[in-house]
Amino acid sequence: MSPNTTIPQALVNGARRAGATSSCLPYRVIRNSRGSLPVYSDIRNAGTRYQVQIRNVVGDANILLRDLRTTLYPPQSPEAAVPRGHVVRSRHIVLQGRGSGWKNQVSEWLIARGF
Fold first, then answer.
1. How far apart are CA 86 and CA 71, in angstroms?
2. Residue 29: exposed, middle, or buried by beta-carbon count in 10 A (0-12, 13-18, 19+)?
3. Rounded to an integer, what distance in angstroms lies between the CA atom of residue 112 and that of residue 19?
4. What are phi and psi of 86, to 5 degrees?
5. Could you read off the pLDDT of 8-23 as tens digits, one per residue?
6. Helix/strand/coil for 24
7. Residue 78, helix vs strand vs coil
8. Helix 102-112 / helix 61-71 crossing angle, nearest 10 deg
9. Backbone phi, then psi, for 85, in 5-degree steps?
10. Distance CA 97, CA 82 (A)
């Protein structure tokens, strides 16, 4: 790369950079050193309890949790009542629910918000 070449702001380490959508929010989710979102799934109690963890939240994690609960699923859908969550150490969010497919939905929701 020549010194005059600029890297597009949409890409940093091959990952999407936070855009205008995320800049006006009172929270941010910082990507890990590999450029991935810090969203992890955890299966507990012999497969009867599924958790999704969001780590590295900077800012107000309670507002992020509220936004996830209200906008991840359509308001009147049966899935909207399922996810429960809490904030751990003011930097991590743990969502609990049934089924194992919603880790990807949480990741896609964060990407759509510009993280």
1. 16
2. buried
3. 10
4. -150, 160
5. 333 333 344 444 456 7
6. coil
7. helix
8. 110
9. -160, 165
10. 6
Between CA 45 and CA 26 the distance in angstroms is: 34
For the stretch 24-47, pLDDT in tens is 889 999 999 999 999 999 888 877
CB 27 within 8 A of CB 58: yes
Q: 48: exposed, middle or buried (C-beta count within 10 Å: 0-12, 13-18, 19+)?
A: exposed
Q: State the Rg of the chain over Cα.
A: 16
Other Cβ atoms less than 10 A from the Cβ of 39: the count is 22
41: enclosing H helix or E strand: strand 39-44
**Where do the DSSP E strands lie in the chain?**
11-12, 15-16, 27-29, 39-44, 49-54, 57-59, 84-88, 92-97
Give yes or no for a contact between 86 and 12, defined as CB atoms under 8 angstroms apart. no
CB of 102 within 8 A of CB of 83? yes
Give the pTM: 0.72
